[in-house]
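Lecture 7 notes: from sequence to structure.
We start with the chain below.
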Amino acid sequence: MAGTRAPSRVKFLGSYQNQLDSKGRVSLPAAFRREAADQAFVLIQAHAPALTLYPEGTWAEVEERLQDLLRRQPEARMWVLRMMSNAVEVVPDAQGRILVPARLKDAAQLDGQALLVGAIDKVEIWNPELFEGAVGEQSGEFERFAAQIFL
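Predicted structure tokens for the same chain:
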């Protein structure tokens, strides 16, 4: 059942812009590697146009929510299959790089540079220009949200 697992303890903060190499690999910042040491990750496009990188502990919580969704709403099966068909497990190599498959790289419009943004318990990977555009579009709402969190 969703919500019964102990909360994950990883914490990803900050943003880092790194170069994609010719093989489609991007380096995870050292701070992010330390948070999820010795863990595999699941890379998926859950919220276009960004990619989301879940450490395996956090991904286990997502899987529980997916299974719960299928029990409660069997009609969600094709959506779940579509999401899972684009998910891939990635393991950082010895240099801390992960391979972004071509189909996900294209879906996220990553071309040369990738912005890795800490999103508390996961990492989002953005095209830097698309990230700036998305943040700019939503900035009018920021003060309302900030007042709710930072008292």
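Points to note: The longest helix spans residues 56-72. The helical segments are 30-35, 56-72, 77-85, 102-107, 128-138, 142-149.
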